[in-house]
Structure formats: C-alpha cells, structure tokens
Write a structure and sequence with these properties.
Order of helices and strands: HHHHHHHHHHHHH
Largest sheet: none
Distance between the termini: 42 Å
Number of domains: 1
Number of helices: 13
Shape: globular
Number of strands: 0
Length: 279
C-alpha cells in the first residue's frame, strides 16, 4: 500500500507540473494544442475516407473501422499520457546518458519510469480524437455493451499499451551497447507502430499476419483486440489473446532491459563531458 500511495503521490506531482508547463504561456498552449490535434486527426483521415468511400474495408463495416481507429488512437494516447517525456522513447534517455538522472533518485527504477512521464494534460490532446470516435461508434456497433464487455475493452487496451511499451524497450535497449548509433532508434519504432496499428489485417497471408503479431506486433495494437471485441473472432478466449501476448512481450522486454542495465553498470555513460554537458 505504501508503494501504491507513493505512485499516486508522484502522479499527482507530475500532473501538476504538466499543467503548469502547458499553461505557462497562452499563445504557446493554443498553438501547441491546435497543431497537435490537427496532426493526430490527420493521421486518422486516410482510413476514415477509405471506409466512407467503400462503405467499409473488407469484412469491416464503416462503424467497425471507426472502432478500430478509435481503439488504436486511444492506446497511442495512453502511451503519451503515462510515458511521455522520453519514457516510452527510452533509447533517448539511455543514449544521452540521462538514465543516470533516474538511477540516482532514492526510489526504485520501475517507480521512476512508471511516474516520471505522466502528463495527463499535454498527452490528452493525442487521445482526444480517439475518445471522440469511440463515443460516436459504440452506440452504432449493434452489439451488447455489458459491464463485462467494457471490462474486456479496458483489459485489452492496457495490454495493447503494454505491448507498445515492451516493443519500445526491446529496441531501445540497443542504446545500452551503442548509445550514439541507437539514440533515436525509438523514434523510428514509434513511428512504425503508429503508422501501421490502425489497419485491418484480414486477407493477408498467414505468414505475414503472424509476423505482424510477432516480429512487429502491430496486430495486437488494434486489429486483433478489435476483432475479438466486435465478435469478428469467434474463437474461444479470443479476448485473452492480446493480454497473454502482453505478458510474453513484457517478460522478454524486462529480461533484455535488465541485461542492458548490467552492461550500463559496467561501462556507464560516455555522452557527458567533464563540465556536465552532452558531448
């Protein structure tokens, strides 16, 4: 209970700092909010226009496509809300030597990584379009929206977010061994996941579909959980496939990241000069 209270206290602290940061200048706040909203809405328009033009995509109706888009957008927003300021893009922290700032704090590393990136005000701009789309799509899906269904929705969203974070940490751990070369590797992996997670993968070859749920797990960030939630996947326990995958990816990511930390403990950061600035 003490750890839970500590996490909640830190979330409150970082939320207050986020609010102060985003509102310190009205002009900056408005320009940042409007531009970020336009970028995120624009990223959804390609699929929206395709669904409108062809009355759906494949076996997916227009409303089901909207649900898929909203699901993937909200999961992307959860990453921004809880793991902003380069917590999700951990390769930047490691490559720049900024992980030292976390390691010297008098609290466990996991607690710092869980709380330090919490930015509910600035990050919510990314999630807002997804929430709007889901609120519009849910009443039009024609399925029974029970408490159990909403519980499954929440569970799968958390699982998809965990898979995204695990994938980022798997690739970001390369920066422990190659800090200069891999400093921005998470920028590329984040962009890759963001661009592919909103597409339905029905009709692809089985080998390619398996690859998009294994090597590149974009299938778990929208398509697979949405199919289960919408009843398009009739297999038993289909609602648990994404959560089980999240556990697997999480265990692998933790193992690799711990190995990177051990290496980092022996070598330290080489990105700072003697006067304290990044070299």
């Amino acid at each position: 209970m003490n750890k839970i209270r500590r996490v909640l206290h830190l979330w409150g602290l970082y939320a207050r700092m986020d609010a102060l940061w985003i509102t310190r200048d009205l002009k900056m706040f408005l320009s940042w909010s409007i531009s970020d909203t336009l970028v995120n809405v624009g990223g959804l328009f390609a699929m929206l226009l395709l669904a409108q033009r062809f009355a759906g995509i494949g076996s997916w109706s227009k409303v089901q496509v909207l649900f898929l888009l909203s699901y993937s957008a909200i999961c992307g927003g959860l990453i921004e809300v809880f793991f902003g300021f380069n917590i999700a893009n951990i390769s930047r922290r490691v490559g720049r030597g900024q992980l030292d700032h976390v390691l010297i704090q008098p609290q466990p590393l996991w607690m710092s990584l869980l709380t330090e990136g919490f930015c509910p005000f600035s990050g919510s701009v990314v999630m807002a379009p997804g929430i709007f789309l889901m609120a519009w799509a849910l009443p039009r899906l024609g399925i029974h929206l029970s408490a159990a269904w909403y519980g499954a929705l929440l569970l799968n969203m958390v699982a998809s977010t965990a898979i995204t974070l695990s994938f980022q940490y798997l690739w970001g751990s390369i920066a422990f061994w190659a800090p200069r070369a891999a400093e921005e590797i998470n920028s590329s992996t984040s962009r890759l996941l963001g661009e592919l997670r909103q597409y339905p993968l029905d009709g692809l070859a089985p080998a390619l579909t398996a690859g998009l749920r294994g090597v590149l797990p974009v299938g778990f960030l929208g398509w697979a959980p949405s199919r289960a939630l919408l009843g398009l996947d009739s297999r038993p326990l289909s609602l648990l496939i994404t959560p089980v995958a999240a556990v697997g990816f999480g265990l692998i990511a933790v193992s690799i990241f711990q190995k990177g930390l051990i290496h980092y403990g022996r070598t330290g950061s080489q990105r700072y000069l003697s006067f304290g600035h990044r070299g």
